[in-house]
Design brief:
The chain is an all-alpha fold. The chain contains 16 helices and no strands. The N and C termini lie far apart (about 55 Å).
Length: about 325
């Protein structure tokens, strides 16, 4: 119950912090696919006949897609490991075949395969919040993980284990559809709350490095900052840490450690984007600057408008357009 209350608190905080959001990355992709599967499962519980069968064939894969969402919520990697989508695909395909062709040898084989793979996906979803658990995680991240597990466990218990009284009688199927459809709807809402939470609290922001700076890190920091200015690194689109390491004649890991310990940024991308956005803020606030936002993005080292908008919003909490309007309005009112 405490975990459920905590998750509810996170929901309220998310509601207060709403701002324009555009889905991106593997988390958004899996969330969209899972949404389609959950909605199909809900519709299957509301309809009858062939329509219900068709929607159920899509909806039975929801547990596999939900697991991929959980992986993306708690795994900071930009891409899935190769086997993860395969497992989710097996769940979806075997589940669909078992619904559409339930009789005969094929039906029995796919039904067993679906039971095994679906159960594995359910269990793996429980594990995901704690695979990368560390004692130094921020309190809000710990509460989020406890809340996620508590909500998920409650829904699985109600939907899969059948924690309700009475399973016989003329109204048993209606009761079963109502409970399972309701659990699916609550799960869908909770999933998007979790996605929103992660968008507001990125992995890099919730896992700060606690490693102490070494003397090598301290010596390297001013060299790195001089290189930033002398080579105008921030203006280089698609700049990689490997290029900076070569220029400094240092291993990549040492440059990364310097950035996280001495300079205080979660990673290289956060560091370089911080300086790009600092330049963009000056240009956007200048009333004499007539270039478009896209042109300013290019001038500040971004290869396209989308990454610029996302990085700017993450850094300032505003869109570049909103920042330009607010800054120039303030200047004109003085």
């Amino acid at each position: 119950m405490a975990s459920t209350a905590t998750f509810g608190t996170s929901l309220a905080a998310v509601g207060r912090g709403l701002r324009p959001w555009r889905p991106r990355g593997r988390l958004a992709l899996h969330a969209v696919i899972a949404t389609a599967s959950f909605v199909s499962y809900i519709l299957a519980r509301l309809l009858d006949g062939d329509a219900a069968t068709g929607f159920l064939a899509i909806g039975v894969g929801a547990c596999g897609w939900a697991w991929l969402v959980a992986r993306a919520l708690f795994d900071p990697s930009e891409r899935d490991v190769e086997w993860a989508p395969i497992v989710a695909g097996v769940v979806a395909v075997t589940g669909a075949i078992s619904v559409l062709a339930p009789h005969g040898m094929l039906g029995r084989v796919t039904d067993n395969a679906y039971a095994i793979s679906g159960s594995a996906a359910l269990l793996l979803t429980f594990v995901e919040p704690f695979l990368r658990w560390r004692p130094d995680l921020p309190a809000v991240e710990k509460r989020f993980r406890y809340g996620f597990t508590g909500i998920y466990a409650s829904l699985v218990a109600a939907s899969v284990l059948g924690l309700w009284t009475g399973s016989d009688g003329p109204h048993a199927q209606m009761r079963d559809d109502l409970i399972k459809g309701g659990c699916a709807l609550i799960g869908l809402i909770a999933m998007w709350v979790a996605v929103r939470f992660r968008q507001l609290h990125p992995h890099t922001a919730t896992a700060p490095s606690r490693r102490a700076a070494t003397s090598e890190d301290v010596i390297l920091a001013p060299r790195l900052m001089r290189l930033l200015v002398d080579e105008d690194l921030a203006a280089r689109p698609e700049l990689k840490i490997a290029e900076v390491a070569v220029l400094l004649r240092q291993p990549e890991y040492r440059v990364s450690q310097c950035i996280s310990t001495v300079l205080g940024f979660a990673n290289f991308n956060r560091w370089i984007n911080h300086h790009r956005i600092a330049r963009a803020k000056i240009l956007l606030a200048d009333p004499a600057e007539r270039r478009s936002i896209l042109e300013i993005a290019f001038a500040c080292g971004f290869a396209s408008l989308g990454p610029f908008n996302r990085a700017f919003r993450d850094e300032t909490g505003m869109t570049p357009r909103g920042y330009r309007a607010a800054s120039r309005s303030e200047t004109s009112s003085r």
